[in-house]
Design goal:
12 helices, alpha/beta, Rossmann fold
Length: 312
C-alpha cells in the first residue's frame, strides 16, 4: 500500500509538472518572458540573503543542489539525510573536491522535471543555473535559494553562514566557518612574494578578482596579471609572458590544448611551468580550496629558498 501511495503521489506531481509545462508554452512568448522575469526577481530576492518564505518553518528535509559549488557547501553543512540529490558533477573527481563524500547520494540531471519529481522543499542554485529551469520551478511553487559565485574570503564566509541559515544548520555552519578561519590562518606564506601567472586556454591570464587570482594572493604570490583593466584577467601573449619572466607559471585546466601548446614553446624552456598544481580544489570558492592554497604557499616557500641559495 505504501508503494502504491508513493506511485500515486509521483503520478500526481508528474501530472502537475506536465500541466505547468503545457500552460507555460500555451501562453506563448509573453508567458516565457514573464516566467523569466519572475525567476530573476526570485533570484534577486535570495541574493540579498533574505528568504522570507519558509524562514520560520522547520529545516528543509529534502534539499536538491543544482551546481557543483553549492554541492560542496551543502555536503559540509547539511545532515546527510537532508540531501535529496546533488548536481550531475557531484562525483566527478576532476570537478568536485568533495566527490568522495558525494558517493552514494542521488544526483539530479539538472532538469526541472527531474528536480520536481524528487519532491524537494529547497533547491540550491547559483547565478549560472538555467533560467528556464528556475522559472519552471518557481511556477511550480518550489523554494529556490540562489547563491552568488563570490570568490573573496568575505564572500566565502558569507556563503557558509547563509547555507547554515537556509538549511537550519547554524551551529554546523559556525563550526565549518571556524575550521575555515583556522586553516586560513595556519597557511605559511613566503616572506617575499614570488611572481606567478595562471595561464589558461587561448593564452588567457587570470586577474586578481578571479578565483585563481584570489588563491594566488592568499598563497602569498604577486599576480603577474594585474593592473588597469585586468581585474578579471585578459589575454597574455607569449612574448609578454617571456619578458615578464615570472617565478612560476601555473597551467590552466587540463585539456586546454591551445594553452598547453603555448606553454610547450621553446621560449619557455627555462621557466618554471607547473601543470599539476591545479585540480578540483581550484573549481569552487569553498573551504576545500584552502588545501590548494596551502600547497601553493609551500611551493612559494620552495621558490624563495631556491632564490636564497642562488645568491649565496
Amino acid at each position: 500500500m505504501r508503494s502504491i501511495r508513493r506511485s500515486r503521489a509521483m503520478a500526481h506531481r508528474g501530472g502537475r509538472f506536465m500541466w505547468a509545462c503545457a500552460r507555460h508554452f500555451r501562453r506563448g512568448r509573453h508567458s516565457i518572458a514573464r516566467a523569466f522575469a519572475r525567476a530573476m526577481a526570485l533570484a534577486a530576492g535570495v541574493a540579498g540573503g533574505a528568504a522570507v518564505a519558509g524562514a520560520a518553518d522547520a529545516p528543509p528535509a529534502r534539499v536538491v543542489s543544482m551546481n557543483v559549488c553549492t554541492d560542496q557547501l551543502l555536503l559540509l553543512v547539511a545532515d546527510r539525510a537532508q540531501i535529496a540529490a546533488l548536481s550531475p558533477l557531484a562525483t566527478n573527481r576532476e570537478m568536485s573536491a568533495l566527490a568522495a563524500r558525494a558517493e552514494g547520494l542521488a544526483q539530479t540531471t539538472g532538469g526541472a522535471e527531474d528536480i520536481y519529481l524528487r519532491t524537494p522543499d529547497l533547491v540550491l542554485a547559483d547565478v549560472w543555473s538555467d533560467p528556464g529551469t528556475l522559472a519552471m520551478l518557481a511556477r511550480l511553487g518550489v523554494r529556490v535559494e540562489r547563491f552568488s559565485p563570490g570568490v573573496s574570503v568575505p564572500d566565502i564566509r558569507a556563503k557558509i553562514t547563509r547555507m547554515g541559515e537556509v538549511l537550519g544548520q547554524d551551529a554546523r555552519a559556525a563550526a565549518v566557518l571556524a575550521d575555515f578561519d583556522a586553516r586560513l590562518a595556519a597557511i605559511a606564506r613566503p616572506a617575499q612574494a614570488p611572481s606567478a601567472a595562471v595561464y589558461g586556454a587561448g593564452g588567457y591570464g587570470y586577474g586578481p578578482k578571479t578565483l585563481e587570482g584570489q588563491m594566488l594572493a592568499l598563497a602569498g604570490f604577486e599576480n603577474l596579471v594585474s593592473g588597469p583593466g585586468l581585474d578579471w584577467g585578459g589575454r597574455l601573449d607569449l612574448e609578454a609572458l617571456v619578458l615578464a619572466a615570472p617565478d612560476l607559471v601555473i597551467a590552466g585546466a587540463p585539456g586546454a590544448s591551445r594553452a598547453e601548446e603555448m606553454l610547450a614553446h621553446p621560449a619557455l624552456a627555462g621557466m618554471r611551468v607547473e601543470r599539476a598544481l591545479r585540480d578540483a580544489r581550484w573549481v569552487c570558492a569553498a573551504p576545500a580550496m584552502l588545501g590548494a592554497v596551502a600547497d601553493l604557499a609551500a611551493f612559494g616557500r620552495r621558490i624563495e629558498a631556491e632564490k636564497a641559495m642562488a645568491t649565496q
